[in-house]
Amino acid sequence: MPKQKIILKGISASAGIVKGKARIILDPFDNSKMKKGDILVTSITNPLFTPAIIKASGIITDLGGTLSHSAVVARELGIPAVVGTKEATKVLRDNMMITIDGKKGIIYAKTQ
Amino acid sequence: MVKKELSMQKLNKQIDILLDIIVESLLGAKSEEEAAALTLWPIPVPQGMLYFSDVWTKKLNRVLHLIEKRKIKSKEILKAIRFPSRIVQFLWLDAITFNNLSKKEKLYPIAKFLIFLSLFRKKDIFCENGKNILWNKKELEKHKRGLHFFSGKGKNLNKLISTFEAILWSYTELLYWTNHPFGHGFHGSYSIREGDLVVKEYFDLKPKAWSFSQGLNFSEVEIFEIYKRNTSSKIKLEFFERNIRTNQSIKQDLEKFALKVNGKIVKKPEEISQFLENLMEVIKKGSEIIQALNEQQLIEKYADYYFYAIKPLCDLVKENWHPPKQVRNNIYKKYKEINAVWEKVVKKNFEKTADLSYKQQEKILKEAFDPRN
């Protein structure tokens, strides 16, 4: 079984563990890039990201804290979220298979 | 008429508590390295406030004085306000504080709002035990009567209600930005025979300020959620009606839920799916419209809905709630002048806070929001 390596840490915003493909969306105009089950990776969310959020299995942001829009909406949806990672949009790549641990505020990726 | 005035000593104590809550909330919405209030969508709160907070606070003073002068009963005032989350939002103190008005003009509305809130919340203004109790037993029974409850245990229905709520929340943020409690209010948890009840009310979902909102098929949603009794440790509503003391989603403990849309009891899950579909369409349209607005148009909308939020109070004394001409003048004729204050003074000061310690940021923010300064 492939090992998991910690690639990012942030603030625990919504507990839960989920595995999925990272989808980097910096501008809500690109919401249509999001596929059901993808993990939304963005700088910070706002209501314009709603069409992407509704398809997300998890959320990771560069900015924001436990009271930010991303955190509140993720808890409401019951999906894991890690916010305030500072550099998720730089470190992660589209289609990268990652695992979010929303309780610990950690993002893992496979290593072979 | 509100007979009982708060003593100055009591008011000071309550403002101190408020400032603690406000600053904790502001610092909790960002990571440590971010400057306060600058990442807010679509414009930072203090930037917009510069154009209208003095005019708004003056109008509010006038309306509240008229209400007092005309001896309008507390019962009627509460009935007009209907949803206390509106006044809770004013108690962020930003609009009331971020201007050059006198201390008296700032403190008068704060004192009044605290009295109204005390009446709404059965004297527990700050929700000290983690409960926001608005209804007594009789009122609770009245609201629950005839409801059709769905099981919250099944994966599909749980997902449906969770999604509907998350999207409703987002929609109120689309309409009212950081002032989303102008469109929702949460209360409870009420200990009832079946478990712990949380009530989520969404209202003013079709404000005239936004033409796109008229495409929505409903303007009010009331959601009743009953959780397993032991979930109450995770449900702790605070002053601003948020369940923020946990990073846990409580949805897995949802036993059952019921909805009223525009006062009508929802009986089929398909109806919820249809409401959700309609909501997503309106959000899509609204997003396009908001993204196309320039900064001045955004500030104008901000002022429009902020004045609209005091409409229930204005209606009581038959005052026009719309922003006076002076607000449009500030936005369109004095834009450069006011924006310079934002860019060169306020924004710079906020940006500087990013390099400071939590304690230092706390101190600066408390001073900035304190109406007594």
Please describe the biggest sheet of chain A, giving its number of strands, its sense, and whether it closes into a barrel. Answer: 8 strands, mixed
Largest interface: which pair?
A: A-B, 38 and 38 residues
Tell me, rounded to a whole number, the average pLDDT of chain A.
93
Supply the number of structural domains of chain A.
1
In angstroms, what separates the terminal alpha carbons of chain B? 29 Å
The helicity of chain B comes to 40-55%
Q: Please tell me the total number of domains of chain B.
A: 2
Key features?
A: 112 residues, alpha/beta, Glucose Oxidase, domain 1, eight-stranded mixed sheet, 8 strands, B: 373 residues, alpha+beta, 2 domains, six-stranded antiparallel sheet, globular
Write the layout of secondary structure elements.
The complex is a heterodimer of chains A (112) and B (373).
Chain A lengths: L2 E7 L1 E4 L2 E8 L14 E4 L7 H4 L4 E4 L7 H9 L3 E3 L4 H4 L5 E5 L4 E6 L1
Parallel strand pairs in A: 3-4, 4-5, 5-6
Antiparallel strand pairs in A: 1-8, 2-6, 3-7, 7-8
Chain B lengths: L7 H21 L16 H5 L3 H17 L4 H8 L3 H6 L3 H4 L5 H18 L16 H8 L5 E2 L3 H22 L7 E9 L2 E8 L18 E7 L26 E8 L2 E2 L3 H23 L3 H14 L2 H6 L8 H8 L2 H18 L5 H12 L4
Antiparallel strand pairs in B: 1-5, 2-3, 3-4, 4-5, 5-6
Description:
- The complex is a heterodimer of chains A (112) and B (373).
- Chain A has helices at 50-53, 69-77, 88-91; strands spanning 3-9, 11-14, 17-24, 39-42, 58-61, 81-83, 97-101, 106-111.
- With 112 residues, chain A is α/β, with parallel strands linked by helices.
- In chain A, strand 7 (97-101) and strand 8 form a beta hairpin.
- The longest helix of chain A has 9 residues, at 69-77.
- Chain A is globular, with a radius of gyration of 12 Å.
- Chain B folds into two domains: 8-126 and 295-369, no CATH class; 137-291, no CATH class.
- In chain B, strands 1, 2, 3, 4, 5 and 6 form a six-stranded antiparallel β-sheet that branches.
- In chain B, helix 9 (155-176) runs parallel beside helix 10.
- The model of chain B has no long low-confidence stretch (mean pLDDT 92).
- With 373 residues, chain B is an alpha+beta fold.
- Chain B is built from 15 helices and six strands.
- The relative contact order of chain B is 0.16.
- Chain B is globular.
